[in-house]
């Protein structure tokens, strides 16, 4: 089976990353102070911590990041939480939003997963904000399809997504995952959140297993 990079091409992935960052920068620039301080779908983070985290790779060099990781006892999640809270407190809302547009072409990517993982990082965290705030759907279906195509047992473990006994099926594109007896149906972007360990607001999913992934 070909990888997403082989099917779509590295250039397409880069274009999608840049587009995602610019689109989200526009969304974030229009948020109110109340929205910036509202809970996101990331447990324990407000919108401002999520957006601060999205810009971490632009503000911190590899050497500095490794130093932060050592300070966090080698725990990536603990490091990300500490840096996000620190940057969210230090930077203005305007600066947090502008960073994505200013670094739309930045080559940052997670330590594993390549370019498609960078796109997933931006898209999923963008959904952590927009879905939590009840904003209109904005993730293009080709982008969502590419990201759903990377869902695997390994990625589910890393993000703490427990899909035992369920079968996910998108209602707006041809995608499904799992063989369990409990169906969970919804828009592609909402199932993407489920695959990344999130619970989504009530009413976005349907099926016998939907309640398990609802906030």
Description:
Pfam families: MDMPI_N. This is Mycothiol-dependent maleylpyruvate isomerase metal-binding domain-containing protein. One of its GO terms (molecular function) is metal ion binding. It comes from Kitasatospora aureofaciens (Streptomyces aureofaciens). Helix 2 packs parallel to helix 9, helix 9 packs across helix 12 and helix 10 packs parallel to helix 12. Helices cover 55% and strands 7% of the residues. The chain has a 4-stranded mixed β-sheet. With 215 residues, it is an alpha+beta fold. The chain has 2 domains: 7-137, Four Helix Bundle (Hemerythrin (Met), subunit A), CATH 1.20.120; 139-215, Nonspecific Lipid-transfer Protein, Chain A (2-Layer Sandwich). The chain is globular and about 45 Å long. The model has no long low-confidence stretch (mean pLDDT 93).
Order of helices and strands: HHHHHHHHHHHEEEHE
Q: Into which percent range does the helicity of residues fall? A: 40-55%
**What are the segments in which pLDDT stays under 50 over at least 5 consecutive residues?**
none
Largest sheet: 4 strands, mixed
Q: Return the average pLDDT rounded to an integer.
A: 93
Put simply, the count of helices is 12
Structural class: alpha+beta
CATH T-level topology of the largest domain: Four Helix Bundle (Hemerythrin (Met), subunit A)
Output the strand order for the largest sheet: 2-1-3-4
The rounded Rg comes to 17 Å
Number of spatially distinct domains: 2
* Assigned CATH architecture of the largest domain: Up-down Bundle
Span between termini: 35 Å
Specify the overall morphology.
Answer: globular
Number of strand segments: 4
**CATH class category name of the largest domain:** Mainly Alpha
Report the β-strand fraction as a percent range.
5-15%
Domain Mycothiol-dependent maleylpyruvate isomerase metal-binding: 18-105
Pfam families: MDMPI_N (PF11716)
InterPro entries: DinB/YfiT-like (IPR034660), Maleyloyr_isom (IPR017517), MDMPI_metal-binding (IPR024344)
Organism: Kitasatospora aureofaciens (Streptomyces aureofaciens)
């Amino acid at each position: 089976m070909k990888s997403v990079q082989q099917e779509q091409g590295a250039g397409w992935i880069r274009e999608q990353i840049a587009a995602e960052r610019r689109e989200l920068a526009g969304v974030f620039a229009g948020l109110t102070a109340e929205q910036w301080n509202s809970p996101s779908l990331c447990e324990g983070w407000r919108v401002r911590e999520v957006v601060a985290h999205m810009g971490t790779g632009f503000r911190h060099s590899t050497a500095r990041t490794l130093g932060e990781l050592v300070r966090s006892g080698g725990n990536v999640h603990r490091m990300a939480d500490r840096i996000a809270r620190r940057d969210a407190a230090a930077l203005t809302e305007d600066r947090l939003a502008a960073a994505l547009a200013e670094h739309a072409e930045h080559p940052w990517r997670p330590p594993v997963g390549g370019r498609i993982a960078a796109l997933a990082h931006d898209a999923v965290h963008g959904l952590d904000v927009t879905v939590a705030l009840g904003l209109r759907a904005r993730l293009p279906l080709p982008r969502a399809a590419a990201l759903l195509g990377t869902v695997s047992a390994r990625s589910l473990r890393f993000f703490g997504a427990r899909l035992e006994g369920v079968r996910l099926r998108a209602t707006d594109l041809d995608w499904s995952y799992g063989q369990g007896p409990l169906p969970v149906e919804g828009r592609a972007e909402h199932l993407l959140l489920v695959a990344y360990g999130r619970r989504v607001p009530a009413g976005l999913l349907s099926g016998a297993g939907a309640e398990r992934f609802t906030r």
